[in-house]
Specification:
The longest helix is centred in the first third of the chain and has 13 residues. 13% of the residues lie in helices and 24% in strands. By secondary structure, it is α/β, with parallel strands linked by helices. The protein has one domain: L,D-transpeptidase catalytic domain-like (Beta Barrel), CATH 2.40.440.10.
Length: 225
């Protein structure tokens, strides 16, 4: 696939851009350069990734994620790994992207959406909601929070940073594993089961996510159609 088919997210100022390079067939190439800056008095603010992505990840959602990263930069302690969730895609498709801005590693994972976002259980997310009790997925920027052990074992809380997901903590929206998010469910039914608005991942995907996307990282979820 030629470079002319890829979209470029330009590097931001302030802390410069981080370089990415991957051989992933899904996100064929992610490229940037690093620009050194003077250290801040406090902990350094992570640089926004400058990303060149394969068309399988819609450049429109990447552009939105970039803008959200910039808006919420003060809340993001770690920029070496970011997550983008493209809910435009059906739940049978891997649509949870982990991008490692240091090593260039990129992986895709299955993830469920909320039953309130898909009342007919079609496999497609039809709407977002931030309302308590909606059991729907909320779109926008999140920062990952602490690990905890709950109903689904080791999980991770997230905090909404936008008006569209400001109730994430009140709604107990978290990243966890669930039986209905396993690939076998897709093989049997053609779609994943639905959560109550949480980011429910297969067990193996959750282990990678917890290891790479720990507290203080950026997660962005949206759809473009």
């Amino acid at each position: 696939m030629s470079l002319t088919r890829r979209q470029i997210i330009e590097a931001g100022a302030a802390t410069g851009a981080l370089g990415l390079m991957t051989s992933s067939p899904l996100l064929a190439q992610v490229v940037a350069s690093a620009a050194p800056t003077a250290p801040a008095p406090a902990a350094p603010v992570p640089a926004r990734p400058r990303v060149m992505v394969d068309p399988i990840l819609d450049p429109r959602i990447v552009t939105r994620a970039r803008a959200a990263f910039d808006r919420h930069r003060p809340w993001i302690r770690h920029g070496e790994v970011v997550a983008i969730v493209d809910f435009t895609r059906v739940s049978a498709d891997p649509r949870f992207f982990l991008l490692d801005t240091n090593t260039g590693r990129v992986t895709r994972h299955l993830v469920s959406h909320g039953r309130g976002s898909d009342p007919g259980h079609t496999g497609f997310l039809h709407s977002f909601s931030n309302r308590v009790g909606s059991e729907a997925t909320s779109n926008g920027a999140y920062v990952t929070s602490e690990y905890y052990h709950g109903k689904y074992g080791r999980s991770m809380r997230v905090r909404g940073l936008d008006p569209s997901n400001s109730n994430a903590e009140a709604r107990a929206i978290v990243v966890h594993t669930a039986w209905y998010a396993e690939p076998g469910v897709v093989a049997q039914t053609g779609r994943l089961g639905r959560s109550e608005g949480c980011f429910a991942l297969p067990h193996q995907s959750l282990q990678e996510t917890l290891a790479r996307l720990g507290p203080g990282h950026f997660l962005y979820a949206d759809r473009v159609a």
